[in-house]
Structure formats: structure tokens, C-alpha cells
Design brief:
Length: about 230
């Protein structure tokens, strides 16, 4: 793992996840088409700021009773151990993910107490109004029952809506979704964001000015055809 401090990570929470994705197109252009969710995720609390942390990974099932399951206490110890802060990333491997909720009032409070900032999952969550304040959830959907939900693996590679994650990957997430941030990009991102803001400012100022038209847009864009 790249030698990073919590302060290095915290710097990136001043920007939303789309901005981080834009910056990664500069710092790590090879990752332009992967490393983030490509299906929508439901956000528990859109008012919460972006979060960042080291991934703690697990897989769950809920549609049928457990035949083999991972030890819940071993899982909690795993979440509470190692680099902080953490974000839990859980893959629901049922044929129809979201059949039963792992996340609700109890788990959000337990995980918050263990130092996790939130969770990203293709599974579902419930107890929307009773979940721990300040704990963010990005899930595939909201559903009412926990059904037969159980852990089947921990500290394992997972895939959440196309975002592949392994233990200790750095995750940045907000109401838009989530992205894996390579460790070597963390300290480069602020300069990349500054460059993006300066590039975009030229176009935004022109677009908001009286008398804006195609010719003014053309002049403002110049050679910056890839601005979004």
C-alpha cells in the first residue's frame, strides 16, 4: 500500500465522486472505463458529504437458508482491524441481489462504532429512518426483510455493479456512486482537480454570460474538446 495518511485521504472528501473520476482520467487515464459502479446505487442520505476509506470486503446471500456461512465475529474483527478509516464493500451473490437486507439499524450502528464510514453494496438495505446518523449506505435497492441473509466469505475480491474491489482498496463514494482510487493517485488528484476547474471555468463563464452563442462557445472551448 502507498504510504498515505488519513489527512491525505481527507483532502479528497472536499470533492464529489464525479470530480474524482474526472481527475483520475488525468492521473490514471488507463482507468477511464473501469473502477467504478456502472449501474445505479440508491443512497441512504444524499445530504452526507463524500466519504473515503480502505475497503473491507465480504459476500452475502439471503434468498435461502445458510448451508455454509462465514463467522460473524470473525467478520466484525476483520472490519475493525487495519488501516482506517474504512468503507465496507459487500457483494450480494444471490441470483436476484437484494432478496434480503444485511444493512439496517443494527448493522449501521455496529459498523459505525467499529470505525466504518459507510458501505457500498449491490444488495439492499432497510430501516431508512433508523439507521445510524452519519453512516452512508449505497445499495442496489431498499427492501423490508432480511430474509435468510448471511455472510459467505470475508476479505475476498468482490464486484459491485461492475466495480471490482479487493481488501484495502481506497474507495471514494457519495450520492452519485463509488470509485476505486489507486493509492499512487491520491496525492496527484488535488492538482488534477485544480487543472480541471480552471479548464471548466472558461466554458462555464462564457455559457453563463449574456449574449452566449455558438461562436462564443467555440472560442471558449478552443482545443478543450473533451470537457464534460
Amino acid at each position: 500500500m502507498t504510504n498515505l495518511t488519513s489527512a491525505d485521504l481527507d483532502v479528497l472528501t472536499q470533492w464529489d465522486t464525479p470530480t474524482i473520476c474526472n481527475a483520475l482520467e488525468i492521473t490514471n487515464p488507463e482507468r477511464r472505463s473501469f473502477g467504478y459502479n456502472v449501474k445505479p446505487l440508491t443512497c441512504l442520505d444524499p445530504s452526507l458529504p463524500p466519504m473515503i476509506g480502505y475497503a473491507r470486503t465480504a459476500k452475502i446471500r439471503a434468498a435461502a437458508p445458510a448451508t455454509v456461512s462465514a463467522d460473524r465475529l470473525e467478520y466484525y474483527e476483520y472490519v475493525a482491524t487495519g488501516a482506517t478509516p474504512t468503507i465496507v464493500v459487500i457483494e450480494d451473490v444471490d441470483p436476484s441481489p437484494g432478496y434480503g437486507a444485511f444493512w439496517g439499524e443494527v448493522q449501521t450502528n455496529v459498523h459505525k462504532g467499529l470505525g466504518a464510514k459507510g458501505c457500498v453494496t449491490n444488495g439492499c438495505f432497510r430501516d431508512v429512518t433508523d439507521s445510524a446518523a452519519g453512516f452512508q449506505l449505497l445499495g442496489g435497492m431498499v427492501n423490508p426483510s432480511h430474509a435468510h441473509v448471511h455472510l459467505i466469505d470475508i476479505n475476498c475480491p468482490v464486484n459491485v455493479h461492475g466495480m471490482e474491489v479487493v481488501h484495502d482498496d481506497i474507495i471514494h463514494a457519495d450520492l452519485h456512486g463509488a470509485v476505486v482510487v489507486p493509492g499512487d493517485a491520491v496525492k496527484k488528484i488535488p492538482d488534477a482537480v485544480d487543472l480541471l476547474i480552471r479548464r471548466e471555468a472558461v466554458i462555464l463563464e462564457a455559457a453563463k454570460a449574456p449574449g452566449f452563442n455558438f461562436e462564443k462557445l467555440k472560442a471558449a472551448i478552443g482545443t478543450q474538446a473533451d470537457i464534460h
